[in-house]
DNA sequence: TCAATTTGACCGAG
DNA sequence: CTCGGTCAAATTGA
């Protein structure tokens, strides 16, 4: 039911965007650009909500840009055959909460990450299948729903357990959703997250789930592009590694898209929604679609406390 | 040569 | 059986 409604909303938003696009070809009203952007955000928001309702969970994005590079052409039987058995339960079993989620215009946050895996995810535009492969061949745009996995470059050297997942937005490829797990324990966590920056172009929406924070209280913040730095800096998670170079890069980053990713959180509370009503998850989604509150949250740096949301349970 | 990336296989959960 | 997360051999590029 909720899924149906959201699907309907998404179609409407898509239609609106199409109309605006058509209109924008004839008139160059700057306001129209903003409106179009807003429409795109709506679509993206709905997509994520749908994904969450379908049990997909996380905020995904896809980090890799571009089609498969075709770098590797090893025989399929190579490798793995004599691989020693090993436990890979880590995150699944531990049910580790994401430390924070950021939406940014580039998957690059300036930190040192080593890519260790990539997956096409379920309910994706181009699911993992032969058909998907065919599509990839004929399409110059890589699947927006491919998720890439990164771990700290110094995982083995310093035992740093920080990881992150990057996924590209389906409807707005310029937006990457980066989910961080754990905090850097290597020697690189000096400067907190790249979110910080006096005038930096930082991720406009950051959700902290409390993991790794001092008070354990999850938070969400949306920061404006136009230098609302003092506010945003208060929402910064305490321990993420970042360097001055990173911050500089952040300053150079193009404007991040602001949108709700409430529906895209892999762990609680969002992802557990199967009740049709009264669920905090759906409440969050409803909040997302409540234009007044949604717009407020997008542009006025609304802080959403997930603790309060969980109380509704 | 070595570090980083790619990508199929592996593993546990559901 | 499917799926998401991870591993690690093969490969690429500096």
UniProtKB/TrEMBL annotation:
Residues 218-236 have a biased composition (Polar residues). Pfam families: WRKY. Keywords: DNA-binding, Nucleus, Transcription, Transcription regulation. Residues 57-106, 218-249 are annotated as: Disordered. Residues 102-184 form the WRKY domain. It is found in: Nucleus. Transmembrane segments: none annotated. The keyword tRNA processing does not apply. GO terms for molecular function: DNA-binding transcription factor activity; transcription cis-regulatory region binding. GO terms for cellular component: nucleus. This is WRKY domain-containing protein. It comes from Eleusine coracana subsp. coracana. The lineage of its organism: Eukaryota, Viridiplantae, Streptophyta, Embryophyta, Tracheophyta.
């Amino acid at each position: 039911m909720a899924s149906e409604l959201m699907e309907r909303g998404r179609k409407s938003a898509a239609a609106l965007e199409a109309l605006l696009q058509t209109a924008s070809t004839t008139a160059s009203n700057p306001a129209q650009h903003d409106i179009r952007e807003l429409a795109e955000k709506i679509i993206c928001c709905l997509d994520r909500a749908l994904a969450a309702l379908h049990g997909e969970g996380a905020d995904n994005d896809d980090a890799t840009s571009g089609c498969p590079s075709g770098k590797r052409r090893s025989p399929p039987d190579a490798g793995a055959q004599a691989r020693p058995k090993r436990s890979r339960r880590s995150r699944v079993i531990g049910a580790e909460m994401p430390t924070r989620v950021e939406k940014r215009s580039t998957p690059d946050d300036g930190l040192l990450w080593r890519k260790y895996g990539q997956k096409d995810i379920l309910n994706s535009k181009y699911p993992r299948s032969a058909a998907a492969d065919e599509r990839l061949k004929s399409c110059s745009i890589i699947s927006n729903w491919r998720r890439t996995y990164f771990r700290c470059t110094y995982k083995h050297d310093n035992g740093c357990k920080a990881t992150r997942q990057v996924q590209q937005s389906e409807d707005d490829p310029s937006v990457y959703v980066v989910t961080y797990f754990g905090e850097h324990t290597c020697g690189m966590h000096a400067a907190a997250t790249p979110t910080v920056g006096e005038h930096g172009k930082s991720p406009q929406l950051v959700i902290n789930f409390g993991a790794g924070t001092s008070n354990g209280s999850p938070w969400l913040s949306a920061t404006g592009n136009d230098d609302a730095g003092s506010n945003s800096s208060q929402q910064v998670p305490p321990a993420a590694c970042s360097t001055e170079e990173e911050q500089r890069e952040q300053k150079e980053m193009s404007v991040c898209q602001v949108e709700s990713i409430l529906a895209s959180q892999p762990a609680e509370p969002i992802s557990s929604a199967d009740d049709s009503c009264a669920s905090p998850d759906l409440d969050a989604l409803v909040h997302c679609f409540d234009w007044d509150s949604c717009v407020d949250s997008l542009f006025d740096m609304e802080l959403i406390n997930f603790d309060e949301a969980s109380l509704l349970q």
